[in-house]
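Bit of a strange request maybe. I'm writing a small parser for structure token strings and I need a real example to test against, not something I typed by hand. Could someone generate the tokens for this chain?
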Amino acid sequence: MGKSHPSYLLLLLAISSCFIPLFQCDHIDIHVLLSKDALSLVGFVSDRVTDIDPHNDIDFHGVSTPHITLYLTDFQDGTIQNVSNAVADVQGHLPQCPVHLIATNNSFDVGGQYAMWEVELNDCLQLLSDTVVNATAMYAKKNQSIPGWVNDLPEPEREKKIKYVKEYGSPNVFDSFQPHVTLAWDPSPARLKDAFSRISAVNFPFTATKGAGSTAGPHGTVNTNGTLFSFSLQPSGQPSIEVIVGIPFTLVGVAGIIGSYLYMYRKKQKLAKMEEAGEFIVDDQLHTVGTINS
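Reply from user aminoacidic:
Good idea to test on real output. This should exercise your parser:
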């Protein structure tokens, strides 16, 4: 008998966690992972917020993983492997993307019980989301419940998002895709707003090179121990031969390689300039990524 592939063991471990109430196993969040520096920065901000507001219920210390959701939905029972295989089949069409965490007026996006770090929507991230949705939506449950906040939206946005929920199980797909990093959640909006009023933020760029599919946790989080599959984003559109949960995927076609290469070439110079701005501000003090843990 052959050796067990470690990815299969990871998948089995994650599936077994479905019996733990915290995990919403059929709800899978397919997402972009942050770079090492971006993870450190988000963790620093999270710790600062929690120091100010101990009621923050998002914990990035081994419980939840900061991420940028591409597609979150309730998949049909027993289709986790199908979803993983579907992402593997299109992995070669998923390019590495420039990501720009943005701060409007040096502030994070705090609304209601949530605080988020906005991500600038660009063509590359839109491509990632659209490709993943198109590849996996066939396994999503149809006619899922409409989130309460959707019903409160004005027309025609409300009607469009309801249609997306019914067809794709998510209101945030295609032209409603809104990339962001969820930072904190507090049942008291006033408490959360006060905490973030003491923290200023600036733009922070990085390059997204990896993604994953994980079980969804509370408040828009993904569970650190709930990874079901992972995938690599392709540099300059080159095809990958990585195996995801033991299943090899189809190599990208020539058209996909050329298209992705041209896109990344156009973004190269812009990204180089963005990466020079790797600074942020906390309580009016200037920090750089290299000193956030000092």
